[in-house]
Amino acid sequence: MNFNVGDRVSLLRTGKAGTISGKLANDTYQVRLDGGLGHLPAPGHALALLDANSPAPAPAAPQQPATGRGNDRTDTGIQLAFDPIFNDDGDPEKYQLYLINGTRNKILYEIKVKTGDRQRSSKFGPLTAYEKLRLDLVPYAWLNERLTVELDVRAVVEGGTGPRHFHELKVRPKQFFSSFRDVPELRHEAHLFVVFPHLKATSVAEREAPASTLREITRAQLKSKPPQAQPAQRPPSLQDRGNFDPVLDLHLTALVDDPASVPKDKVLSLQMEHFDRFVDKALRLDVERIYIIHGLGNGILKTEIHQKLEHVPFVRKFSNDYHPKYGYGATEVIFDS
């Protein structure tokens, strides 16, 4: 449906009433909300035309914020909220970005905000259960610059962290303006995206090595036997960290007893499997830094490692600077502490 400047309309989702104050691109309109609530961009399909004499529909009852702790709460997942900030004319000028942890687990997160190929901001750290975190301001103009938000999350569980959850949210104007709704954690309306409705909270320690067919058969046989009491998992201790060797040598001679038995086309994949397991273990033990020895050679292994590290969450930085022991044949990786 087409609207004209001056038309009285209501927002279908919230019931709020206002007046069309301008036309935007892609069937989107600028609405001046009644009661001095400012201006709001909204798509045409989210609006209903009001007669001049008809009262605005009653607004929907606001959702009450969750109360209580732990099991008394209903999980709402991991969410991103864009809270509009208006200028003196009542137009949205920028948005305050929030990360909302609506799960019963503490999480470790890494978030990157980009427009096109340009990275605008990057943050990482922990966020406790059922809490929100104020992040960066997002200018209104970025909505027209291919805005994307990359979110990398792991649940903190007994014995380490859960599996990685990654999503790239591509924010497009029409989709963005139709996401305006009540956000209980903010106690008012904002643009809300549920990125992960649920988090898997199983320690990656249980998946450290890939399963083989023989192992699957063995597990199936064990399931048929009476279960035996297992010692409770415990979080990593100082002794665990002390026993961890922070240096991984990826030379084939350090990985297998008989290097000649490994086909040439399998060498790189074998090295990267060891790399993946080593980094996962370092993250679970919360070590500060590690060294990956890749040697000099033709540089293929080093390039593969650096490309992987670009996407590993909670890596503060990595470098291939000269080391007195390894020369230029190793990469130092420093994690967020």
From TrEMBL:
Ranges that cross the membrane: none
Ranges of Low complexity composition bias in the record: 221-239
Highest taxon of source: Bacteria
Pfam families from the UniProt entry: Smr (PF01713)
Domain Smr: 274-335
Annotated spans, Disordered: 52-74, 220-242
InterPro entries associated with the record: Smr_assoc-like_sf, Smr_dom, Smr_dom_sf
Protein name from the UniProt record: Smr domain-containing protein
Organism field: Neolewinella xylanilytica
Lineage: Bacteria, Pseudomonadati, Bacteroidota, Saprospiria, Saprospirales
